[in-house]
Prior knowledge:
By secondary structure, the protein is of the alpha+beta class. The chain has helices at about 1-35, 40-50, 65-75, 90-105, 115-125, 150-160, 200-210, 245-255, 275-280; strands spanning about 40, 130, 140, 145-150, 170, 190-195, 215-220, 230-235.
Amino acid sequence: MRARTFAAGVLAAALAASMTGAAGTSAAVAADARALPSVNMEAVVKAAQIDPRRRDSKLTPGAKAGVLLVEKALRDRHLLDARWVDGYYGTTTVTAFAKYQKSLGFRGIDANGLPGKASLAKLGAGRFKVTRAIGPGGRVKFGKAVVNVRTRTMLNEAKRLLGRKLVLDQGSYNPGGDPTSAGTHDGGGVVDVSVKGMSAATRVSVVRALRRVGFAAWVRSPRQGDWPWHIHAVAISDTTLSAQAQHQAGDYYLGQNGLSGRGKDDGPKVTIRTWEEYRRL
């Protein structure tokens, strides 16, 4: 009996020690994670849309520290030359991040050079932690059109602000579906809103509401291209944007109209915010 009691005591002590050790290890891992620098995903994704469209070398406000961490990680994987580690998320960094995404097995629109939650977290493992993560969500229907969860939520909020229904002529993830769209609808976050029955003033009101909730949006007329009247809207910072849609979002920040001629923005003046920034108001 005593031998059994002694053995049981030894076993209990060993178990307690192992549990204490596991707890200590977990605490150390958590402490290490807290000690890592942070990459603000919202800021980095914003820079990835704006910087490639700049005609100067200005940095996107609030993005430099995070972009530098991303670029250093890409450099250490031999995907980005050291001379491009400068906090400026230009076309070279977009291309490097796309190569990294492909190395992880991502294809098509999921390897578009915009950091996604999964690819950014993998790149930062042991180097940095990701804060203010963005995710488009899965594909869903809005009326008869296909969009993603983030875009649908944004559209529903615009509807609430307007107090009227919105009907889509075209949704997202529609590669080759409309040659006149020049690839903007190939990925997520892009929709064309029908203006059927709308007055000119109502069209502007719709664009204003879409801009308020985080879309780069414009009224498009037949004189601008081979298309009927409609409202074109790009969900800023949707991480599944096509390259063309990324350019339109960047041009919007730079006061342009999102067309190939890069003319002056002709829409209502609204403080530019992403959906995530709108939600924090």
